[in-house]
Amino acid sequence: MIRAALPLAFAGALSLAAALPAVAQQQPAPRILVTGEGEASLKPDLAMVSLSVMREAESARQAMDANNEAMAAVIAAMKEAGIADRDLQTAGIQIHPRYESRSYDDGRQTSEIVAYQVTNTLSVRVREIDRVGEVLDRAVTLGVNQGGGIAFGNDDPSAAITEARKAAVADALAKARTLAEAAGVALGPVVEINEQNSGPSPMPFKARAEAMGAAPVEAGENTYTVQVNMSFAIGGE
């Protein structure tokens, strides 16, 4: 029984081995691959402002106390200006020693701690763009001496992203039709589609800060970009 089974098993292995090259030689169906891009712009409706207070003293404790006092005044002023608690967030507190190099008559050189620096960074979300300059001016008056970075955004950019998606797909369809026509083939159905999108990039748009004495601020426009990669069959039904 065992001897009789061996030729059958060997014959089955040969049949499987003969079938493998046929599978390996199968080629994917021809397709048209294109990339489409679309974008849509929105005027910003909020701004993220980064404000930092740095204080220096002989000890870390003294530097921290001075920094706490200054930052507390800045936070109180932001709230008085109508900034909600949810729009105020501490972004980081750093404590660093400051060193100075000293040289001696015998040629020795040392590096000694001469002071400590404490930096507290506050992120402020400003929901009225025209008040950004006023917020910056008030913060500097109260002791902010570092930072000042501004990022303009949109509370709900979904409508702009949807428009960018539609434009990207239309762009990809137009490219695919042109390629199919040029190649003399029929454009089949969509086989695969995937999307990549990027956040807003600033574009020129006039804006002004209306408060007297406030820093001039240009809000710009936020442009949302979507890229789609689409695969079409050739000569589909």
Word description of this protein:
By secondary structure, the protein is of the alpha+beta class. It folds into two domains: 28-43 and 157-234, 2-Layer Sandwich (Translation Initiation Factor IF3), CATH 3.30.110; 46-153, Protein of unknown function (DUF541), domain 2 (Alpha-Beta Plaits), CATH 3.30.70.2970. The chain is 34% helix and 41% strand. The strands form two sheets. It has a four-stranded antiparallel beta sheet with strand order 3-4-2-5. The longest helix is centred in the C-terminal third of the chain and has 26 residues, at 158-183. The protein is elongated and about 85 Å long. This is SIMPL domain-containing protein.
How is the main sheet built? 4 strands, antiparallel
Helix content: 25-40%
What name is given to the CATH topology of the largest domain? Alpha-Beta Plaits
The residue-averaged pLDDT reads: 82
Secondary-structure topology with pairs:
Layout: H1 2-24, E1 31-42, E2 46-57, H2 60-80, E3 88-103, E4 109-126, H3 132-141, E5 146-153, H4 158-183, E6 187-203, E7 221-234
Antiparallel strand pairs: 1-7, 2-4, 2-5, 3-4, 6-7
Key attributes of the depicted protein:
237 residues; alpha+beta; Alpha-Beta Plaits; three-stranded antiparallel beta sheet; 4 helices; 34% helix; SIMPL/DUF541
Question: Could you give a quick summary of the protein structure above?
Answer:
This protein has 237 residues and is of the alpha+beta class.
